[in-house]
Amino acid sequence: MWIEVVFMLLCTSKIYAQTCARHCGKKLEACSCHATCASLGNCCSDYRQFCLEISPYSGSISGGSDFTLLNVTFNQSSKLTCRFNDEIVVDGYVDGDGRGHCISPLLYETGWIPFDVSADGVTYNRHGKWLSVHPGKLSPDLKATLVNATQWQYYGTPNVSGTLRMTWNTSLVKAEKVKVELWGYREIGRPYSSSWIPEWKYLYTLGRDLNNSGEFSFIPEPKEKPVSDWELGSIRVSASAEPDGKRDVEAAWTDDHALAWHLEEKFREDSATWALEKCLSWDKLEQVLPNFLNETIDCPCTLAQARADTGRFHTDYGCDIEKGSVCTYHPGSVHCVRAIQASPKYGAGQQCCYDSTGAQVLTSDSIGGSTPDRAHDWGSPPYRNPPRVPGFSHWVYDVLSFYYCCLWSDNCHYYFTHRPSSDCRTYQAPKAGFAFGDPHFITFDGSNYTFNGKGEYYLVLAPMKGLTVQGRTEPVKLENGTLAKATRLSAVAMQEDASDVIEVRLTDREDHLEVLRNQEVLSFSQQSWLDLEGVFVFASVPQNVTVMFPTGAGVEVRARGGAMAMTVLLPLEFDNQTLGLLGRMNDDPDDDLVPSDGEVVPLNRTEAESLFMFGASWAITNESSLFTYDTTHLLNEYYFAPKHDPDFVPAFSVHEDPDDPLYSEMTEMCFGPGSWFCKYDTLTSQSLKMGKSTMISFRSHTAVMRDLESVVSCGWLAPPNNGKKEGTRYLEGSNVTFTCNKAYTLSGSRERICQGDGKWSGETTHCVSDNILGIVLGSVFASLGLIAAIVAIILTNRKQKRKAAEIFEQS
Ligand SMILES: *[C@@H]1O[C@H](CO)[C@@H](O)[C@H](O)[C@H]1NC(C)=O
Ligand SMILES: *[C@@H]1O[C@H](CO)[C@@H](O)[C@H](O)[C@H]1NC(C)=O
Ligand SMILES: *[C@@H]1O[C@H](CO)[C@@H](O)[C@H](O)[C@H]1NC(C)=O
Ligand SMILES: *[C@@H]1O[C@H](CO)[C@@H](O)[C@H](O)[C@H]1NC(C)=O
Ligand SMILES: *[C@@H]1O[C@H](CO)[C@@H](O)[C@H](O)[C@H]1NC(C)=O
Ligand SMILES: *[C@@H]1O[C@H](CO)[C@@H](O)[C@H](O)[C@H]1NC(C)=O
Ligand SMILES: *[C@@H]1O[C@H](CO)[C@@H](O)[C@H](O)[C@H]1NC(C)=O
Ligand SMILES: *[C@@H]1O[C@H](CO)[C@@H](O)[C@H](O)[C@H]1NC(C)=O
Ligand SMILES: *[C@@H]1O[C@H](CO)[C@@H](O)[C@H](O)[C@H]1NC(C)=O
Ligand SMILES: *[C@@H]1O[C@H](CO)[C@@H](O)[C@H](O)[C@H]1NC(C)=O
Ligand SMILES: *[C@@H]1O[C@H](CO)[C@@H](O)[C@H](O)[C@H]1NC(C)=O
Ligand SMILES: *[C@@H]1O[C@H](CO)[C@@H](O)[C@H](O)[C@H]1NC(C)=O
Ligand SMILES: [Ca+2]
């Protein structure tokens, strides 16, 4: 209550707006409350009307989740409806306790979708938001499962038949009797035009009046056209009482999948021929669709790079080394990543796969190679039009065709012609800036310093790129409760252009981070990945948070031993664009420390005070602050206090005293590179634990820097015609050797080595036939063949012309 009083009294618009925003769950400027003292009372008393809390707050993009409206009761005669995105109206109901429920609808987009609630079907006076999630990022408990996915995938191909089985968690459908329906997905209209739209259709019912036992088995029959033309879809389990094919009813959906099991009889008779025909027509289509390949980002050269460049690449859930994933579509690979951002014009995606030695796997060498995607699997804003529909579009343009060409028939070369792996010759690793411990800073250019100011500062300010990262420091508490003369990082807040503001802060629970979006705490209980406005956030455990922006900037936050460590990863496009505590990024460590208003401070440890002045100059203001001040402590210490506390004078140096009881353990623990930071932090905080976490953070940063080191790639080498090559690594020092088939002689280099300048040693390798006569005769026959072919073409052409003329005359 005291806080509300403070708000009333001070009536500062920023804090006021933040309060409203928190309550309304909207962006500051979109908040329906107005920033005046008079309306404050209104906002606070009836904000529940504006911002419904719901449970659960997220579900599949396919819809069908029943969610409860919390903190509001309805009477039984209410006719409840929910309206999503101002257009999709779904029925709700009031349960026995007077609590309202709605069912989430099918949405062709992911992220937060606003909805309004009406108790009379006319006035929509309550507002909330629903998080729509990509099926691949949804927890498996929230969907129906295809048991033995391989059997479903290949059903109807030679030797794959039998009974198909699926299961679901019965709590997903609150009904005794259920039915099982098949729904199909396709995209219609002219590609890359506004008529290109998604279509989602009820096809037929597989079973009805079944006990809701959580399990369904059936022996699928081949279907006839036109139903069998639906090759992609998903199975829905819903209450038997609902009419067939009714949209947006409570349901459990399976993952989208290729409907091998219901394709026409012809597929079962000869699946390879059927699939080849499909593969060829996809090949034709691809030839006329625009080429997106030069728009996608190049793959990292090594597995280490791919896993360290977390601002631009993220684990592909289908092939994840951490989960021991079987890489179904990428045999021979142990881990794949996807480019996080879709390409700007075409919404295309990039995927990069690596083998157990850490080398990239290329489609030109292996069926398990990395492949780019016409449609990014995760979709891309504005999402609702192909090829940007999350999940579905990717299936249509990149996955079904893989089934046709590679899985159901053996014609993968067609697929790889249009989806060749990117090599890594133009890949450039990002640069990393780092803040950790009692805060020490390692700039993007690798210089380091310690700054123990207390306040809120710009860590990165890159106005031309629209990126701001701010950090808050607070004094370290000693074990006996007094404050040390040192600070630690306790929160970071960031934004790029007009994105949602993301804040990550330490909480009272040790090593648990809290993430706020526009001043409101986010929950990661249902999924670890959130698609937000202009930013993605990933948090699989409470200690680790990754924030990813469209420019490719990434921020990694770690809670470790009571302190926060933070890495900012910036692509090279940020060169010359950054200022702030992490320095001016331009490959020159000597000019890193530019105060906000002045000349470069030379890095010189003996002048801790001038460093302190440098740090202080980067204090933010209340106007520029991205932070949330939602406790009296934060209000007093940071909002109504100088942003850089002039009264807080840290210890500029520490004294190592062999009589100190911590001394021996400390020297044992703090060794090697980074030991200075470890000792400093142990002594200022009088805590071995703090020193230890500093040491771990430093080593973790060193490992990331090593992983990001640039690697020279010479690019793929083709095997010679009539010969073979050995070796599929193309990085500096790699060695590729060539041999020729019998009756051919090798010319050029037998062995080529990738050199430091990115060029292969030696010369192009050829295999020359030993039988010169063979070549001469061969070419004679070839010429004869050519003449015959020309004659044949002329004849058929004539025939066709005649035929065309006949048809023309008839009409
Ligand atoms: C809303 O209801 C939930 C659960 O019933 C409760 O935990 C929460 O505190 C309530 N929120 C408000 C603002 O009353
Ligand atoms: C239910 O609500 C409506 C409108 O709010 C009201 O007119 C009606 O009297 C209420 N019925 C009961 C049983 O409370
Ligand atoms: C899955 O189905 C395939 C194809 O029918 C079969 O070969 C395999 O044994 C099945 N696996 C399991 C675990 O049942
Ligand atoms: C199917 O099974 C037969 C007999 O076991 C075998 O000869 C054939 O190779 C199998 N076909 C495929 C595609 O696995
Ligand atoms: C089914 O879902 C409920 C609620 O989400 C959960 O508590 C339960 O453990 C789940 N059961 C199974 C078998 O996964
Ligand atoms: C990609 O290629 C197309 C035509 O081939 C060209 O118009 C376009 O500028 C290229 N884009 C990039 C980013 O190189
Ligand atoms: C930090 O910078 C100092 C010079 O200011 C240098 O001697 C030291 O090696 C650097 N430490 C690390 C870990 O880079
Ligand atoms: C707390 O501990 C520090 C260092 O161990 C010491 O300097 C300080 O006097 C102590 N304060 C109290 C109140 O005991
Ligand atoms: C969290 O981050 C640390 C350090 O970067 C890493 O070692 C650890 O594996 C991460 N944990 C998870 C679950 O990703
Ligand atoms: C950064 O600025 C320096 C000096 O002004 C210039 O030489 C360099 O090319 C710039 N780098 C980029 C990437 O713009
Ligand atoms: C650091 O500053 C001190 C005092 O100004 C000066 O004597 C010393 O030479 C400087 N050291 C370096 C490496 O610039
Ligand atoms: C290249 O590989 C071949 C065969 O593995 C080996 O004999 C040769 O010594 C290698 N050359 C170099 C320079 O590593
Ligand atoms: Ca620099």
From TrEMBL:
<feature type="signal peptide">
    <location>
        <begin position="1"/>
        <end position="17"/>
    </location>
</feature>
<feature type="domain" description="AMOP">
    <location>
        <begin position="271"/>
        <end position="419"/>
    </location>
</feature>
<dbReference type="InterPro" id="IPR051495">
    <property type="entry name" value="Epithelial_Barrier/Signaling"/>
</dbReference>
<dbReference type="InterPro" id="IPR014756">
    <property type="entry name" value="Ig_E-set"/>
</dbReference>
<protein>
    <recommendedName>
        <fullName>Sushi domain containing 2</fullName>
    </recommendedName>
</protein>
<dbReference type="InterPro" id="IPR001846">
    <property type="entry name" value="VWF_type-D"/>
</dbReference>
<dbReference type="Pfam" id="PF00094">
    <property type="entry name" value="VWD"/>
</dbReference>
<dbReference type="InterPro" id="IPR005533">
    <property type="entry name" value="AMOP_dom"/>
</dbReference>
<dbReference type="InterPro" id="IPR001212">
    <property type="entry name" value="Somatomedin_B_dom"/>
</dbReference>
<feature type="domain" description="SMB">
    <location>
        <begin position="16"/>
        <end position="55"/>
    </location>
</feature>
<keyword id="KW-1133">Transmembrane helix</keyword>
<keyword id="KW-0812">Transmembrane</keyword>
<dbReference type="Pfam" id="PF03782">
    <property type="entry name" value="AMOP"/>
</dbReference>
<keyword id="KW-0768">Sushi</keyword>
<dbReference type="GO" id="GO:0016020">
    <property type="term" value="C:membrane"/>
</dbReference>
<dbReference type="InterPro" id="IPR056619">
    <property type="entry name" value="C8-3_MUC4"/>
</dbReference>
<dbReference type="InterPro" id="IPR035976">
    <property type="entry name" value="Sushi/SCR/CCP_sf"/>
</dbReference>
<keyword id="KW-0472">Membrane</keyword>
<feature type="domain" description="VWFD">
    <location>
        <begin position="431"/>
        <end position="626"/>
    </location>
</feature>
<dbReference type="InterPro" id="IPR036024">
    <property type="entry name" value="Somatomedin_B-like_dom_sf"/>
</dbReference>
<dbReference type="InterPro" id="IPR013783">
    <property type="entry name" value="Ig-like_fold"/>
</dbReference>
<dbReference type="InterPro" id="IPR000436">
    <property type="entry name" value="Sushi_SCR_CCP_dom"/>
</dbReference>
<dbReference type="Pfam" id="PF23263">
    <property type="entry name" value="C8-3_MUC4"/>
</dbReference>
<feature type="disulfide bond">
    <location>
        <begin position="740"/>
        <end position="767"/>
    </location>
</feature>
<dbReference type="GO" id="GO:0007399">
    <property type="term" value="P:nervous system development"/>
</dbReference>
<feature type="domain" description="Sushi">
    <location>
        <begin position="712"/>
        <end position="769"/>
    </location>
</feature>
<keyword id="KW-0732">Signal</keyword>
<dbReference type="Pfam" id="PF00084">
    <property type="entry name" value="Sushi"/>
</dbReference>
<keyword id="KW-1015">Disulfide bond</keyword>
<feature type="transmembrane region" description="Helical">
    <location>
        <begin position="772"/>
        <end position="795"/>
    </location>
</feature>
